[in-house]
Design brief:
- The chain is mainly alpha-helical.
- The protein has a domain of 62 residues: S15/NS1, RNA-binding (Helix Hairpins, Orthogonal Bundle).
- The protein has 4 helices and no strands.
- Helix 1 crosses helix 2.
- It starts with a helix and ends with a helix.
Amino acid sequence: MALTRNDKETVVKTFRRSELDTGSCEVQVALLTTRIQELTEHFKRNKNDNHSQRGLVKMVNRRRKLLDYLKKTGPERYTDLITKLGLRK
């Protein structure tokens, strides 16, 4: 279920803002998005896994809060991130 080290490194390298960046909003949202996508694939195979659905909802809410913050502080960064990740609009 969790991201492997290599997957996490590639996501961080793709979305980081500087060479030492590992925790900016863009990186956090990208990591949450990949985990959410993995969980949705898991739910397609395992329809009765109700316990993991709580974790999915928590991740979606956390991503929503980060995206709201990013939209408020840096609208250009927000639109760039949404287009890169393929989230709505």
